[in-house]
Specification:
Layout (H helix, E strand, L loop, with lengths): L2 H5 L3 H6 L2 E13 L5 E14 L3 E5 L6 H8 L7 E6 L7 H4 L2 E4 L11 H11 L4 H14 L15 H12 L6 E5 L7 H16 L3 E5 L3 H7 L2 E6 L2 E7 H5 L14 H12 L16 H14 L19 H19 L15 H14 L20 H12 L4
Parallel strand pairs: 3-7, 3-8, 5-6, 6-7
Antiparallel strand pairs: 1-2, 1-4, 8-9
Length: 402
């Protein structure tokens, strides 16, 4: 072995520490319509993500996490700085084929079912039909949607949409997986399954970037984290480095008798003030306790707890027909509970002779009076001229001598 070999890490060590993502001086400034700076979302950020690492992006709302992710995906242009993913630009086409992305909101076609959704995204990556079908079956089984594959995505709850979104992010078997709030809307069992999946991806050498507001999820799976605030990185490092309290020590030992505990405390109190000593029992987090209770309930034959994979109740799956039957049953009950009142027959009264005579007089008075039309005077007959007078009059008109 030469001196150069002692200075350079072995090939496997170089691969383990290879930087998949390199960000240097990344800045993003959003401008208004007139080109004036409006908001500095990301301000001079630098970090690296290594191969096979689970990297956490933390920070309050509006701190720049989502903007950083969009620039890593090539969806936004940085105002300043440099980004490399697998040694290329984020807009390199072949690099994009090695990336899987689950956005914060599931942007899916709501009229496609689970299988059609995964087939669609598999087509985008030009996967062969047989490989596409095989991966679709495995992913549906993995995310727990095998039983509801015929339902359209638009009918899914938010938690189920996150599951199918996670499946589409893995359809191309990516080397880099970017997950933005992957457990949002999921139940505790689903959250645990997602974290187990992330750890399985790491075991296969995949690189995962996790952005989440659930700090317990980040603490369970992440190797390193960065904490954003105001567009800048305020803290970064491994969880052990960031969370370890250097100025205190915790001693854990099995439960001892009172005499032994008094002896131990007496020894400690000789050098440490009593008000700085805290004695309590260690506790587990709520998620671990919850999962333990559920697992014990599943193993019991007499449990009445909820289980997964059950069919929807028959009366809920009946659709419009069941609704009509239910409405008919309601109407039957309403009719049966309402007392029926018989309608009395009308009583016919025969009028007397005096009443008939009075009705005739009233009808005669109420009848309209006919209008009297006076005859027009006849026009006076025109005088009739004899032939001699007529000829004389005609001759005068023509100017002829008589």
């Amino acid at each position: 072995m030469t001196a150069l070999d002692t200075l350079q890490p072995a090939s496997s060590e170089r691969t383990a520490t290879e930087a998949v993502i390199s960000v240097r001086g990344l800045t993003k400034v959003f401008k208004d319509f007139w080109g004036r700076p409006k908001a500095r979302a990301v301000d001079d950020v630098s970090f690296e993500v290594r191969r096979g690492e689970i990297f956490g992006l933390l920070g309050p709302n509006g701190s720049g996490k989502s903007t950083t992710i969009k620039m890593l995906l090539g969806l936004l242009y940085p105002t300043k700085g440099h980004i490399e993913i697998f040694g290329h630009s984020p807009r390199h086409v072949k690099t994009k084929a090695r990336v899987g992305y689950l956005p914060e909101e599931s942007y899916l076609y709501k009229y496609l079912d689970s299988r059609e959704t995964l087939d669609f995204f598999g087509n985008l990556f030009q996967l062969p039909p047989e490989q596409r079908d095989q991966r679709t079956e495995q992913l549906l089984e993995m995310v727990g949607l095998n039983q509801v594959r015929s339902r359209t995505v638009g009918e899914f709850s938010k938690g189920m949409q996150r599951r199918i979104g996670l499946a589409q992010a893995l359809i191309n078997d990516p080397d880099l997986v970017i997950l933005d709030e992957p457990t949002a809307g999921m139940d505790p069992l689903g959250c645990r399954e997602v974290k187990d999946l992330i750890l399985a991806l790491k075991a296969r050498g995949k690189t995962v970037i996790l952005s989440s507001h659930l700090l317990s999820d980040v603490e369970d799976v992440c190797d390193r984290v960065v904490i954003y605030y105001g567009g800048k990185i305020q803290a970064d490092g491994t969880l052990k480095e960031l969370l370890t309290e250097r100025d205190s020590v915790r001693i854990t030992l099995p439960m001892q008798s009172r005499e032994v505990m008094e002896n131990i405390l007496g020894t400690i109190r000789r050098d440490v003030a009593a008000d700085r000593i805290q004695l309590d029992n260690p506790t587990q987090n709520l998620e671990s306790y919850f999962l333990g209770v559920v697992n014990r309930a599943r193993a019991s034959e007499h449990t009445a707890g909820a289980t997964s994979g059950n069919l929807v109740a028959e009366y809920l799956r009946g659709g419009a027909e069941a609704g009509a039957q239910q409405q008919a049953r309601v109407l039957d009950r309403l009719v049966a509970s309402t007392p029926v009142t018989a309608t009395p027959e009308p009583v016919v009264q025969v009028p007397t002779a005096a009443e008939i005579e009075a009705q005739k007089k009233l009808a005669a008075l109420a009848a309209p009076v006919p209008a009297v039309v006076e005859p027009k005077p006849e026009a006076a007959p025109k005088p009739v001229l004899d032939d001699a007078k007529a000829n004389e009059k005609l001759a005068n008109l023509l100017g002829k001598p008589k």
